[in-house]
Prior knowledge:
The chain is mainly α. The protein has helices at about 5-15, 20-40, 55-65, 65-75, 80-85, 90-95.
Amino acid sequence: MSEMQKQIVMDITSMAPFVNVKIAESIKNLMETEIEQEILKINPDVVFDDMDITEKLMLLEYISKSEEEREKDAQEAIPLEEILKAEGLNDNDLHD
């Protein structure tokens, strides 16, 4: 993120408490539409049905990564089984 983008985000954050809900919702919708457009530039086949903004942001972050970054993430990922074991759980506990 450029310094200009960082400043704009800080400005928006500072202004947000002072706008009414209708304006805030309009800004949110505009930003979500822009996120969708960025995703579609990279992957035009994406269908946004049942995706909330968090999922869209996660998708954009993922598809924006290089293949090397994705491979690194995959190598550093901790398997679910290890996390469950560390918490004293197993696969069956997830189904209860």
